[in-house]
Amino acid sequence: MSLLRIENLTNTVADKPILKGLSLTLNAGEIHAIMGPNGAGKSTLAYTLGGRPGYEVTGGSVEFDGQDLFDMEPHERAAAGLFLGFQYPVEIPGVSNLQFLRESLNSQRKARGLDPLSGGEFIKLAKEKAGLLGLDMEMLKRPVNVGFSGGEKKRNEMVQMGILDPKLAILDETDSGLDIDALRVVGEGINAIMRKPDKAVLLITHYQRLLDYVKPDFVHVLAGGRIVKSGGADLALELEREGYAEVLA
């Protein structure tokens, strides 16, 4: 069953064409990695799917879990089960992680017709997911990402993903800024949360190193606004060895 079906997607950013006929299908239970040179459109794809303002869709279609993605506002996409992980998670001074996460989760539960979690139920869930990422509960009491290192921000974002429990995670360079230990923890967290038969992951990355921990079923090369080559996990190793020149020739 396809969770995400992208057909001939085109868009512009500041009136400049970026995506130029991109097609891609993710089925439930699959992990896909997208690699490519700088400026290829990788982050643009993530932001367009997430509904970021300024990323204007000019053609094509995207179906998410049987619904037209572009008929939904960004918060509706999130409530339907789409999670977007950012390359640079933002800081929100004055708002505690726990407050932010509880409000986010319960607003999504309300949109799905579910009862909100009580304070005790939420704390139990937060402890469980923080434990997967080795994040101390004291950090969840602090303002969102304020004073966090790069690795702590990424682990905190994975805790958010675990609590929200999405159907599809689009992770934009989650390995950016991680040292070796944090990379392993984050990779193991992604596997524990998302490697399930009813979920899918789209990993956007420059490097093979995250794929050592989160082994993709498919690897795609994005260049010039479209997918130019697809293969299995070995394709990422080939790109690491030889670069993009051979693929783009």
From TrEMBL:
InterPro entries: AAA+_ATPase, ABC_transporter-like_ATP-bd, FeS-cluster_ATPase_SufC, P-loop_NTPase. This is Fe-S cluster assembly ATP-binding protein. Transmembrane segments: none annotated. Gene3D superfamilies: P-loop containing nucleotide triphosphate hydrolases (3.40.50.300). The keyword Cell membrane does not apply. Belongs to the ABC transporter superfamily. Ycf16 family. Residues 4-249 form the ABC transporter domain. Keywords: ATP-binding, Nucleotide-binding. Pfam families: ABC_tran (PF00005). PANTHER family: ABC TRANSPORTER I FAMILY MEMBER 6, CHLOROPLASTIC. SUPFAM superfamilies: P-loop containing nucleoside triphosphate hydrolases (SSF52540). It comes from the Bacteria. GO terms for molecular function: ATP binding; ATP hydrolysis activity.
